[in-house]
Design a protein that fits this description.
The protein is an alpha+beta fold. It has a four-stranded antiparallel beta sheet with strand order 1-2-3-4, with helices on one face. The protein has a three-stranded antiparallel beta sheet with strand order 5-6-7. The longest helix has 22 residues. The relative contact order is 0.15. The model has no long low-confidence stretch (mean pLDDT 80).
Length: 145
C-alpha cells in the first residue's frame, strides 16, 4: 500500500454562485487534486507540484475563482466562487509547495525534512497568514502523534 499524502487544505466553491456542480479542491503534500470536465464527465485529476505552471486568482465582487494551470496544457483545475481570503491562502500555499518541488528537483534538498523542519515550515505559513492557528495545530498534532 502506498503512502497517503497529508492534506494541507480543502476548499469548496459555492454551488449557488458557480453555475455548475459543487467544486472542490484538495491541497496535499504531494500535489493538488480536483475535478475537471472531460466531455460530459467529471474526472478526478491530481497535479503534482512539479506539473503546475502557475496559479491564478480571478476576483469577483463577492467571491474569487482559483485556476491552477497544468504544464501539460490540458486539464487545468478551476474552482469557482471561493471565499476571497481562502483563495489567497490556497494560492500562497500552492506556490510555496511549487518552490519546494523546484528546490528538490534541483538537488538542493536531498534528505527528507525532519519533524522539526516540517513544523518550522508550517509555523512560517501560519505567521504569513497562509494557514490559520487551528490548521497549524492540526498539522502539529499529526506530526507529533
Amino acid at each position: 500500500m502506498g503512502k497517503v499524502a497529508k492534506i494541507l487544505m480543502r476548499l469548496s466553491g459555492s454551488i449557488w454562485l458557480s453555475n455548475s456542480w459543487k467544486q472542490e479542491i484538495t491541497i496535499a503534500e504531494d500535489g493538488v487534486e480536483g475535478e475537471v470536465v472531460v466531455g460530459l464527465k467529471r474526472v478526478k485529476m491530481h497535479l503534482p507540484y512539479d506539473r503546475i505552471a502557475q496559479v491564478n486568482l480571478i476576483f469577483g465582487i463577492f467571491k474569487a475563482d482559483i485556476e491552477i494551470i497544468n504544464k501539460g496544457g490540458n486539464g487545468n483545475l478551476v474552482v469557482k466562487a471561493l471565499d476571497k481570503g481562502e483563495a489567497e491562502r490556497a494560492k500562497q500555499l500552492i506556490e510555496a509547495n511549487i518552490q519546494d518541488a523546484i528546490r528538490i528537483q534541483n538537488g538542493s534538498r536531498s534528505a527528507p525534512l525532519s519533524t522539526a523542519d516540517e513544523l518550522r515550515k508550517f509555523a512560517e505559513l501560519r505567521d504569513q497568514g497562509v494557514i490559520t492557528e487551528i490548521e497549524f495545530q492540526e498539522q502539529k498534532a499529526k506530526f507529533l502523534s
